[in-house]
Amino acid sequence: MGQKSQLWWDLPAIDTFELNKAIYEIPSKKYSDTLNELVELLEVGKLLNTQVRRLSLGQRMRLELIAALLHSPKVLFLDEPTIGLDVVAQQKVRDFIYEYNKKHSATIILTSHNMEDLLDLARRVIVIDKGGLLFDGVLGDLVGQFAKEKIIKIYLSKHADLKRLDEIGKVIKINYPLVVMSVAREASAVAAAEILQNFPIADLTIEEESIESIIVRVFKGEIIKKKS
Amino acid sequence: MNKYIEIFKISYTQEFAYKLSFIMWRVRNVIQIFVAFYLWDTIFYFSGRELFGYDRSRILSYFFGLIFIKALVLSARAQDVAGDIARGEIMNYLLKPVNYFKYWLVRDFSSKTLNIVFALIESVVLFLIFKPPIFLQTDMVQIAFFILSIVIAVLIYFLLLFSVNSIPFWAPELGWGGHFLVTVIIVEFLSGSLFPLDILPYNLQNFLSYTPFPYLIFFPLQIYLGKIKGLVVIKGILVSVTWIIFLWYFMNRIWKSGLKAYQAYGR
C-alpha cells in the first residue's frame, strides 16, 4: 500500500471494501467486526460514503489502509505510508500501525524517508543504498554503534573567547548566543563540566546526534558496512 | 463465484458514476446509426429495388440490428487494462486472489448488460419514429447460429482488446495508440458497422473472411438476416473459433512475457 491506490476513484470507499470482502472471501461477521474496528481506530466513520476523489490525501490514505487490512494480513508492506500527509494525519497513521502490529502480531515492513516513522515504529532498521545493504539491525544499535559523539548545545550569557572551546571539542556552529559542538561520547560529561566551569553559561544541554545525521553519515560511507 | 458477482456490481455502479458520459456514449451510437439508416433508406427508397442482395427491409434491419450487436459486442471495459498497466495499478490485482482475465471479462459483461438495456429502449424509440419494415428471423436454426456467433464475437473482441492493451508493458504511454487502432480503424471499418461488408469487391470480402474482424458484427448479422445459411455459416464459425483459439494462445504468450517485462513503475 502507499503509492498505488486500490480504492475505486469514482466510488465511495465502502464499495471497494465490499469488493475486497468478496475477493478475499471474508465471512460477513468477521468483515463487519474488522471494518468497525478499523473505522474507529482511524476515525473515518463519516468518510465511508464519500466519493474517493473528493477526499483529501490524508483521508484517502487512511481508507487505503483499511482496504489493505480488511483480510487481516499477517505480512504488510507499506511503501511510504505517511508521505505527503499533514502532521496530524501522519501521527494517526503511525499510531494505527503501532496498534495493528501489537494487536495482530503482524509483520510490517515499511519504507519511509520520514525519520519519525523510524523512531516511533521500527524495531529493526535496514539501510539500503544503490542496491547494497549498509546497515541491518536494531535502531538503538545504529545510534549506539555509530553515534560516537554527543552534541552539546550551549547558550552563553555573555561574550567569551570561544577559541578555547576548540580544545574541548569540535565546534559545529556558532550563532550567538547559541554554540553547538560535538564531543566524544565518553568524554561528554567531563566536557560539559569543563565548559560550565570556564564559560559564562546560561543554559547547556547534551543531546544524542539526530537520527537523520547518523543516516546521512551512513550514506556518505563514513560508516563502513558490517563485516558479513 | 461470489467475487465475480461483486465485481459485476461494482463495475455496474462505476458505469453510473458519470451519467452524462454514459449518456453521451449512447447518443454517439444512436447518431451513427441514424446517419447510416437515413443514407441507406434513401438508396432503397424505391420499392422493389434490390442492391448487393439487400432489399429495403433487410438493409434497414441490418442497421437496426447494429444497435444491439454493438451494445453486445463492442461495449467493453477491457480498454482500461492499458491504463492499469501504465499506471502500475495492475499490481493491486496481481496481489489478490482474483483472476485478472475473469475480472475484466466480468466487467465487460456488466458493461454489456447495461448497454443492452439502453439499446432496447433506444430501438423502441427509433422504431416508433421510423416505423421501418423490420425483417424478423423465424428459423430456429438460424437463431441458434446467431446466438452462437454473438458469443464468439464477444470473445474475439475481448481477446483482441486484451492483447492490444498489453502494449504498455513495453511502451507505457502507447496504450491509446493500440486502442485507437482497434476501435476506430479495425472495428468501425472492417467489422461491418459502417456498411455491410458484402458490398466490397469479392476478393477483398474473401480475404476479410479469414481475418477475425467480420466475425465481430457482420457475420452475426448475416446469419440473423438469413443471407448465409448452412455450410457457409459452419465454415464461418470454424474460422472464427480458430481465431479464438489462436488469440487466446497469443494473448497468454503476450501476457506472460509482459509480466516479466513489467517493473511496477507507475505515476
List the helices and strands and how they pair.
The complex is a heterodimer of chains A (228) and B (267).
Chain A: H1 13-23, H2 28-42, H3 57-69, E1 75-79, H4 87-104, E2 107-111, H5 115-121, E3 124-129, E4 132-138, H6 139-146, E5 149-156, H7 165-168, E6 170-175, E7 178-184, H8 188-198, E8 201-208, H9 211-220
Chain B: H1 2-17, H2 19-43, H3 56-74, H4 81-86, H5 91-94, H6 100-130, H7 140-164, H8 175-190, H9 202-208, H10 218-224, H11 230-261
Helix pairs in contact in B: 1-6, 2-3, 3-6, 3-7, 7-10, 7-11
Q: What is the general shape of chain B?
A: globular
Compute the number of strand runs of chain B.
0
- Give the CATH topology of the largest domain in chain A: Rossmann fold
Topology of chain A as a string of helices (H) and strands (E): HHHEHEHEEHEHEEHEH
- As a whole number of angstroms, the C-alpha radius of gyration of chain A is 24 Å
Q: Which range does the strand content of chain A fall in?
A: 15-25%
Based on DSSP secondary structure assignment, what is the total number of beta strands of chain A?
A: 8
Shape of chain A: elongated
Distance between the termini of chain A: 32 Å
Unreliable stretches of chain B, pLDDT < 50, 5 or more residues?
none
Strand numbers in spatial order across the main sheet of chain A = 6-7-5-8
CATH structural architecture of the largest domain in chain A: 3-Layer(aba) Sandwich
> What proportion of the residues of chain B form beta strands (DSSP E)?
under 5%
* Largest β sheet strand count, sense and barrel closure of chain A: 4 strands, antiparallel
GO molecular function, one term (chain A): ATP binding
Domain ATPase AAA-type core (chain A): 36-115
Protein name (chain A): ABC transporter related protein
Pfam family, one (chain A): AAA_21
